[in-house]
Amino acid sequence: MGTWEGEMCEYCGGSIIEKRGTRHRKVKTRYLLLEKVPAGFCVQCGTRFYSANGLKTIQGSIRGRRKADGRVAVPIVLPLAERRKQDQTVGLPSHLWRGTGS
Ligand SMILES: [Zn+2]
Is this prediction's pTM over 0.70? Predict the structure, then answer.
């Protein structure tokens, strides 16, 4: 049935079932969530295996050949030093970062 039917885990010899999971990858300044990536999952030791096809899909998405299917806002927390650097370079007008008042 599935891609992993009859496959055995190369580490423990357990049987492999197919699971779809969310993978995330940071590429340069972009952060990608890849949803429902098919992977083989060993029922005994939990090792995950990716088929060549699955990996191709991931790499295709990263290179931007495939359009993203959606966007989510990912909160970014910078280390303090980085944040200071940003404050200097961005130079927001003071009324903006103080809030627009009343
Ligand atoms: Zn295993």
Answer: no
Predicted confidence (pLDDT) at residue 63 exceeds the cutoff of 90? no
Fold assignment, 16-75: Ubiquitin-like (UB roll) (3.10.20)
Domain boundaries, given as residue ranges, for the chain = 16-75
Cα 18 to averaged position of ligand 1 atoms, centre (Å):
13
Reported confidence tier of residue 77, pLDDT bands at 50, 70, 90: confident
Residue 39 CA, ligand 1 centroid: distance in Å: 14
Percentage above 70 pLDDT, the chain: 59
The residues pairing with 24 across neighbouring beta strands, listed in sequence order, are 33
Question: DSSP characters for 49-83?
Answer: E--HHHHHHHHHHHTT-SPPS----------HHHH
